[in-house]
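ok, trying the design again with the full structure, not the truncated one.
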C-alpha cells in the first residue's frame, strides 16, 4: 500500500517523552519518500535506569498508539533502554515483535551494532552525553555485544539546563568529539538519541582514521535499509559498509540540514 506522503514507507517511531532531537533529525536524515509517526515512551520515574526499564516493559502498550496505521517498520529511538535491558532480552523483544507484527523492528542500539559490524570495527571510542552511571551501563552493553571500548569522552551539560542531554547543542558534541584521542580506534559512536550530532558528523566524519556515527544516524540508516529491502532485522546480516559510509558523508541529507539551518 502506498500513502500519499510516504511512497517509500511509513515508520512508527517510539520516542522518549521529553526528547527534542529524534523527530527533527529523522526529518533531515530519512529519504523524503519516507514518512514517520511518533509515539511517546512514558514513565513516572525520575531515575534514568527505571525510566529505561519502563520503556521496554511497556513496549506493547506504546505500540498500540499506532492503531492500524500501515507501518512498514518500527524504530525504537532510545539507546539507553537497551543498556538496562541487556543484549539477550533486547534481541528476544525484537524477534517477538517482528514475528507478531510482520515488519522490521529496529532499535537504536542494535542499529549502532549493525553500523559497527558494517564498518568492520571492533575497537571503538564513545562520545557520551550521559551521567557516569549510564555511561558505565553503555560501555558494559557494547562489551557484551563483542566490541572493545577503548576510550570514552564525556560531554558536559550547560548549567541550569532543562535536561542534561536534550539541552546540549551540536557545538558541545563537536568539541567532545574533537577531544577524543583517535589512537587505536576503528570507529567512534556519538551516543544518545537526544544529543544533536549531525553538524558534528559533517564537520568530523572521521577521527584519525575512525569513521564517526551516532545513535540517530545509525538508526535512520538501518530503518531506511530495512524498508528498502523489506526484511526483518532479528537475524539479518548488517547492510554493506559502503551504504553507511555514504550516510556518514552526508551525501543524501547535508542539503536538508543546511536548509533547516537557513
Amino acid at each position: 500500500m502506498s500513502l500519499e506522503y510516504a511512497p517509500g514507507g511509513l515508520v512508527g517511531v517510539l520516542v522518549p517523552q521529553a526528547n527534542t532531537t529524534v523527530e527533527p533529525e529523522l526529518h533531515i536524515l530519512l529519504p523524503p519518500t519516507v514518512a514517520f509517526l511518533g509515539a511517546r515512551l512514558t514513565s513516572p520515574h525520575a531515575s534514568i535506569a527505571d525510566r529505561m526499564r519502563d520503556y521496554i516493559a511497556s513496549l506493547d502498550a506504546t505500540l498500540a498508539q499506532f492503531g492500524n496505521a500501515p507501518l512498514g517498520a518500527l524504530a525504537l529511538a532510545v539507546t539507553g533502554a537497551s543498556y538496562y535491558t541487556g543484549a539477550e532480552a533486547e534481541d528476544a523483544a525484537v524477534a517477538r515483535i517482528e514475528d507478531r507484527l510482520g515488519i522490521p523492528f529496529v532499535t537504536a542500539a542494535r542499529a549502532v551494532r549493525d553500523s559497527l559490524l558494517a564498518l568492520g570495527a571492533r575497537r571503538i571510542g564513545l562520545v557520551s552525553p550521559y551521567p557516569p552511571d549510564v555511561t558505565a551501563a553503555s560501555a558494559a552493553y557494547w562489551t557484551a555485544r563483542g566490541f572493545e571500548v577503548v576510550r570514552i569522552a564525556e560531554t558536559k551539560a550547560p548549567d541550569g539546563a532543562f535536561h542534561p542531554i536534550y539541552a546540549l547543542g551540536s557545538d558541545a558534541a563537536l568539541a567532545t568529539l574533537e577531544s577524543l584521542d583517535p589512537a587505536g580506534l576503528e570507529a567512534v559512536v556519538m551516543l544518545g538519541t537526544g544529543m544533536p550530532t549531525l553538524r558534528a558528523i559533517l564537520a568530523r566524519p572521521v577521527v584519525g582514521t575512525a569513521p564517526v556515527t551516532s545513535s540517530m544516524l545509525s538508526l535512520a540508516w538501518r530503518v531506511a535499509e530495512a524498508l528498502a529491502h523489506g526484511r526483518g532485522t532479528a537475524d539479518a546480516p548488517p547492510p554493506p559498509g559502503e551504504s553507511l559510509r555514504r550516510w556518514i558523508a552526508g551525501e543524501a541529507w547535508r542539503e536538508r540540514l543546511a536548509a533547516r539551518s537557513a
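Keeping the full-length input from now on. The first helix runs from residue 22 to 29.
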